[in-house]
Amino acid sequence: MTRRTDQLKLGAFLANSGHHVAAWRHPLAQADASQDFEHFKAIARSAERGKFDALFIADVVALWGHHLDALSRTARAEHFEPLTLMSALAAVTERIGLIATATTSYNEPYHIARKFASLDHLSKGRAAWNLVTSVVADEAWNFGREQHIDHTDRYQRAEEFHDVVKGLWDSWDDDAFVRDKASGRYFDPDKLHTLNHKGAHFSVRGPLNVARPPQGHPVLVQAGASEAGKALAARVAEVIFAAHHELPAAQAFYQDIKQRAAALGRDPEHIKILPGVTPFIADTREQAQQLFEQFQALIDPVLGLRLLADTLGEDIDLSGHDLDGPLPDTPPGQRGSRRDQVLQLARRDNLSIRQLYLRLAGGNPVIGTPSDIADSFEQWFQARACDGFNVFFPYFPGAIDTFVDQVIPVLQQRGLFRLDYAGSTLREHLGLPRPANRFSTRAPA
Amino acid sequence: MTRRTDQLKLGAFLANSGHHVAAWRHPLAQADASQDFEHFKAIARSAERGKFDALFIADVVALWGHHLDALSRTARAEHFEPLTLMSALAAVTERIGLIATATTSYNEPYHIARKFASLDHLSKGRAAWNLVTSVVADEAWNFGREQHIDHTDRYQRAEEFHDVVKGLWDSWDDDAFVRDKASGRYFDPDKLHTLNHKGAHFSVRGPLNVARPPQGHPVLVQAGASEAGKALAARVAEVIFAAHHELPAAQAFYQDIKQRAAALGRDPEHIKILPGVTPFIADTREQAQQLFEQFQALIDPVLGLRLLADTLGEDIDLSGHDLDGPLPDTPPGQRGSRRDQVLQLARRDNLSIRQLYLRLAGGNPVIGTPSDIADSFEQWFQARACDGFNVFFPYFPGAIDTFVDQVIPVLQQRGLFRLDYAGSTLREHLGLPRPANRFSTRAPA
């Protein structure tokens, strides 16, 4: 396989006290980060100093988790709303991209098109929309529904939602606003386009009351791993957040998505696939492992057992069992399901209950020296398992500075990462083309 | 009537190139302000330098105006979305309040509660929600409806929407987040409250996934002038933007609202009534009048006639008439309607067509020297016609600096305006109490 000549794309994942579920308890982490904008501003500026492509923030439109005893041991019960936070961060950064999550299940396309267009203007071309569908019933209950929308409907709605948003972003030609003080003409009425969308889920007339975004369209990010999710991603995604922990699975996913995109007539280079990874970094491997173990040791068993129940299913009651003993006999899940995978993992590695929940809680850690981290990144990148990474920093604020000061220079020395931003928009950072306007590029009738 | 011992409250109204409909054409105005965050940042910082209570931004969730020839002569066709803009401005200001408009007609209360709570945290207690109902069909068309919601339904929906939002803001006690690293408890589950709202328009379970806002509740702003609007304002508004141009009408409105509030058991001092006013300021009255005339002269007749049609009704065709002649005979509108008022004004002051549309376009100007402006403010304030003003600056960026440099010091010298902010939250600026949490103040069952 030839050595790649392109460079890694890196996203920095925002989380209150860090990505590790028990991060807030660690002495290195700021426990009250959730309501502290200065904390997020410092993270954003560190990421920009490190020349990251973008900041990323996930979202759920509900307090997610009814098991209060477990939830109350995490820093995940409350956080800034993504669009307000990213808008504020736009004002205190210059170059880094801003990826905000918004669900298509409980929003209206006019609002979403407008807010992301506004963010793209505020940031001079740095906005991206992480398009998701809602999967937890808790969200449905906040929006007048008894249960969440089923998978098929959810994706059909998402497809149509996406198409309406893109159509609204094309409401104005790029050069519609002439602002001629002498003649008194502020915009050219011929360069305004009314969408008039009528579909199964939405009727949206348009036009948008925001000028065409600087990027044409804010960058489209997606993370679906289901068949419907992959089909949508191949058609519309420009960045994909992937969740694979093992190289062969990541390579298979990468190849699958790129081939699907090519089959749809897209340039596969115009979809960047970024798996999530959590680096634990120290001067020696032993120290790095110790750092990782420190965080793992802070996971309360109440929380650990809840992670297991969330993954395996509510029918499994482990409360009477020895945490350091094996998992009791458990009926397997549907073949290929998450339950099935986790049960196989426990059997294969002969894990105790505690070891299993720690494995789940640990996510996808990369543990080692700065050059170990760089080796791992390089291996995955060259093996075409990814185009870069979405970096989940285990704790904030310190972990991102360690990464920027110690790992980024190694990646740069190896030619794997930019020395500085070459462009000013997120599309330019990612090497993505600026989309043409669907209306103004039509041939005259 | 005794001289008031309180001080004026001042809001600074944001608009692209200024509030005057032809502002963007004037040499003093920045024509391409609509997409320039730096422009709004400069305005915000000027307002903060002037110790204004708050910035204010209006909103319509549509491109409003089908008469493209007229609309294309204004700078109103596109602008930043209010919540994204105010979030960005929160990051570059320290003390000034941030009032963003959001409609109850085409939003969901969970999103609105969450975004304003997030903005209140981002700004450390400076957020306010201008609660409106949508009145133009153009908005309905963007949200799957054929026509806008009728007046009664709209206000019933608004009432319930408001109550749900307030309930969601009380999801957490102020001291719910204990973040005890030693015990591993991040929040106290007993201090979390689930709303479980089921009403005619909304079913919203809650709780909100944002901590209780620093202000308890962001400040509630409203502007309804109809009977339903005034009833809602008397019950819930903490700031009212009023639209009266003449002192006796403003006094009557002021007295009416304060009496209604008192009748509902509220302290009338906890509703601040701020009429809109557009100051044209110069060193002499003649120069100020000339400045005003310069702006008025930039109104294209196409735009002027459209303003008349929007006000009088589409059945009146003035296209064949001499602009400098009188209005043709026109059937009067419903008694007390805007059409009726404007026709009476034209008759009373013997106005030509052009003079009439210029009168409408001029809004509520106050024209004169800095001390004339201060006299006018003082007169209205002492006559209990208002508690302050929402200042519509005719052009940006210059007009706000003129006001801050020349009018604010006169108001300060007269003891009518603060020398500096005394508090840090918008509630403190306005002298409004911080609301108790409906859940945590309940007596134990």
Explain this structure to me?
Two copies of one chain form a homodimer. Chain A is α/β, with parallel strands linked by helices and 445 residues long. In chain A, 38% of the residues lie in helices and 13% in strands. Chain A has an eight-stranded parallel barrel with strand order 1-2-3-4-9-10-11-13, surrounded by seven helices. In chain A, strands 5-6 form a two-stranded antiparallel ribbon. The relative contact order of chain A is 0.16. The mean pLDDT of chain A is 94. At the A-B interface, helix 2, helix 3, helix 4, strand 6 and strand 8 of A face helix 2, helix 3, helix 4, strand 6 and strand 8 of B.
Please give a handful of descriptors for the protein shown.
homodimer; 445 residues; alpha/beta; eight-stranded parallel barrel; 15 helices; 38% helix; 13% strand
Write the layout of secondary structure elements.
Two copies of one chain form a homodimer.
Chain A: E1 9-13, H1 37-49, E2 54-57, H2 68-71, H3 82-90, E3 97-103, H4 109-122, E4 127-132, H5 137-141, H6 151-169, E5 177-180, E6 185-187, E7 197-198, E8 203-204, E9 219-222, H7 227-236, E10 239-242, H8 247-263, E11 272-281, H9 285-297, H10 301-312, H11 338-348, H12 353-362, E12 365-368, H13 370-382, E13 388-392, H14 398-413, H15 426-430
Parallel strand pairs in A: 1-2, 1-13, 2-3, 3-4, 4-9, 9-10, 10-11, 11-12, 11-13
Antiparallel strand pairs in A: 5-6, 7-8
Helix pairs in contact in A: 3-4, 4-6, 7-8, 10-12, 13-14
